[in-house]
Specification:
The chain is α+β, with helices and mostly antiparallel strands and 346 residues long. It has 14 helices and 4 strands. It folds into 3 domains: 44 residues; 45 residues; 217 residues, 2-Layer Sandwich (Nucleotidyltransferase, domain 5). Strands 1, 2, 3 and 4 form a 4-stranded antiparallel β-sheet that branches.
């Protein structure tokens, strides 16, 4: 039976209820190119069940992989055992152990067990001592920074951008009606140098706008001296209230003299990219736009030009939301007792 849309089937059901036969339906809707045998089969279904979409109980190809026994095995293997996190097996591992296809495992998980699939989230490794610091400092910052004061905070961070960023092969596929060896190599192969050329950028944002994109000099020795003499003065020019992530005594002293209201190193929660709007929003947005950018830059000079263009085109409204989301993330960190919380945000 040729596959028809749900709308077509409902229309056929209405016509059948009006007394039309398969031939009359076909002649009435010639533009639909309905197959006569398909129309007859649907008419028989309507006459027998009263519906064009409901199947007769027990009809269709009998289930083989999705048996009661296999469903029970998938349920046992695909989820972690109680009080034993991390004991679950991957779809491929489950398929291999039971002896069915990975597609069948996914169907059992989704249709029979009603499970949902989620992507893993990469997070920082944090121990108990770090959790305690994140918790106490998040509480302190939440008390200190009202909504209005949060709008005045200037968040800064650094990020490395690669000329040829890593490719997620799982989501980067080439479709062809032939064999893999017959596909044009230029379509199939992705070249990437072992040590891809890259640039490091430094920037700051706040509720009212974003600063400039500052490029760290190539082969520069990134230390306190470099930050104080090259990056921090530029960031101070972008905004007088600065919240640096650099903790050296030299940099801290410089900031105390030039920006007395900044958040000190012992006030900012450690190992907390999940709290900095640049980390949890801005850099990701830039990477996404860079991956979609065409044509791709071929050298570092072109890469810098492209990154500046992307940075300048970033809309301010999402940045405002990210800055205001800082307090919500502090609250989430507190609720998680200083542990990971990003998986609880959505």
């Amino acid at each position: 039976m040729a596959k028809l849309s749900l709308a077509d089937k409902m229309r056929i059901q209405t016509l059948r209820e009006q007394g039309l036969g398969a031939k009359a339906m076909k002649m009435t809707y010639l533009q639909k190119h309905w197959n006569l045998s398909t129309l007859k089969a649907i008419c028989r279904r309507i006459d027998k069940t009263g519906s064009a979409v409901e199947r007769k109980a027990g009809s269709g190809r009998p289930k083989s992989a999705r048996s009661t026994n296999n469903i029970a095995k998938v349920q046992e293997l695909i989820c972690s055992q109680e009080d034993q996190p991390g004991t679950s097996k991957s779809t491929r591992q489950v398929a291999s152990e039971i002896g069915i296809s990975a597609t069948s495992v996914r169907r059992i998980a989704k249709r029979d067990l009603g499970l949902l699939s989620f992507k893993r989230i990469r997070v920082q490794v944090i121990n108990d001592a770090t959790k305690h610091k994140r918790l106490t400092r998040s509480k302190m910052l939440l008390r200190r920074l009202t909504v209005q004061k949060t709008k005045q905070v200037f968040f800064t961070d650094e990020k490395i951008f690669y000329l040829n960023p890593p490719v997620n092969n799982q989501n980067n596929r080439v479709w062809s009606n032939g064999r893999k060896r017959d596909v044009d190599p230029q379509r199939l192969l992705v070249q990437r140098a072992k040590f891809s050329a890259h640039v490091m950028v430094s920037a700051g944002i706040c509720y009212s706008g974003k600063g400039r994109l500052h490029f760290v000099a190539e082969k520069a020795k990134i230390n306190a001296e470099y930050y104080v003499n090259n990056l921090l003065p530029r960031l101070i020019d972008d905004c007088h209230k600065l919240a640096p992530a650099h903790t050296s005594r030299h940099a801290q002293k410089w900031l105390q003299q030039n920006s007395p209201y900044f958040i000190k190193k012992n006030e900012w929660p450690p190992y907390s990219p999940d709290l900095n709007p640049l980390d949890f929003h801005i850099w990701g947005a830039m990477v996404e736009k860079y991956q979609a950018y065409t044509p791709k830059p071929v050298n570092l000079m072109e890469l810098k030009i492209v990154l500046e263009a992307i940075w300048n085109d970033l809309p301010q409204e999402p940045i405002k939301k990210a800055v205001l989301g800082f307090r919500k993330r502090l609250q989430a960190c507190i609720r998680a007792d200083g542990g990971h919380f990003e998986h609880r945000l959505s």
